[in-house]
Design a protein that fits this description.
There is one protein chain. The protein is mainly alpha-helical. The protein contains ten helices and eight strands. A two-stranded antiparallel ribbon has the order 1-2.
Length: 293
């Protein structure tokens, strides 16, 4: 769930990074339905993207010891299998090197921050960057995914004015009228954008909460359980169905996988694929880049 780094060229004038190509565009494209988005932005797809983001961020924090520091929809890319991956580490920081304050600033005048709309209040106040900085940014991203609109777009404020209000007046995006099922994410959003970074959850906790949301609301996804049978045969049956639209076919495959995970028969291997056991005790192969425990 991290965009793969392949190599780099440091010879002028061709200085560049070579990264994995993700042909389905960015999360921003899916949220706002731009021409690059190649599938409908459904509730199940949104939930999958949220879980993918958490897995990627969990890996960055627990394994790579890195704070992304600029988490936003345009920095979340979608591959051909509809896995959402974290990219753009231009201003990321190594945890062990993070100081209690930051004297750097970006073009918008927000000290040590990434993009002002997604920047945590403690970063705006130059109190330092931690893992919980990314958790705050995730909350704003999650709000944007749920409501499908730019945060604070209803307010006639500049980015600097928004940053000031976030840091000093605890301003947050408003809860809007939307489909009832989207309110499932309200608690997660509000916990993640708490003013005090110490009380925000970790990405491990958020991932557990997202699992619980799915397991408690299976009817919203209209899926059938696949207990005591081979996942491969179930997915194979879905693929054999006469579906003209390949996106609909992939969505059906995903729904089967999600129902199998909820029933305890499925587990990720950390690479966007699955391992399924006949006895219903799915287990990972331990080679993935993400940690689900």
């Amino acid at each position: 769930y991290i965009v793969l780094f392949i190599g780099a060229c440091i010879t002028e004038p061709n200085i560049c990074l070579i990264m994995e190509f993700l042909e389905n565009g960015s999360l921003h494209d899916f949220i706002y339905g731009t021409p690059k988005a190649c599938a409908p932005y459904t509730l199940s797809l949104m939930h999958k993207f949220l879980m993918d983001i958490c897995r990627g961020m969990k890996y960055l924090h627990r394994v790579a010891n890195v704070v992304q520091n600029d988490l936003k929809p345009s920095n979340l890319l979608i591959d051909k299998n509809f896995n959402c991956k974290v990219c753009d580490f231009g201003i990321s920081r190594i945890n062990s090197r993070i100081t209690s304050s930051s004297n750097s600033s970006n073009s918008s005048g927000v000290g040590g921050a990434g993009t002002p709309l997604y920047t945590a209040p403690e970063v705006i106040l130059k109190k330092g960057v931690t893992e919980k900085t990314d958790v705050y940014s995730f909350a704003i991203v999650c709000w944007e995914m749920v409501y499908k609109r730019v945060p604070y777009s209803e307010k006639e404020l500049s980015n600097l004015e928004i940053a000031f209000c976030v840091a000093k007046q605890h301003l947050r995006p408003a809860r809007l009228e939307t489909e009832s099922e989207n309110f499932l994410y309200t608690d997660i959003i509000e916990q993640c954008w708490e003013q005090d970074p110490l009380v925000r959850p970790s990405f491990s906790q958020i991932l557990n909460d997202l699992h619980s949301i799915y397991q408690s609301n299976l009817d919203l996804w209209n899926v059938e359980f696949a207990r005591k049978q081979s996942l491969d045969s179930v997915i194979g049956g879905v693929r054999d169905v006469d579906m003209v639209d390949p996106v609909a076919q992939r969505s059906a495959v995903y729904d089967v996988r999600m129902s199998a995970r909820a029933s305890g028969n499925y587990a990720d291997d950390g690479r966007g694929s699955a391992i399924f056991s006949e006895d219903g005790r799915g287990s990972g192969d331990g080679r993935g880049s993400a940690i689900d425990a």
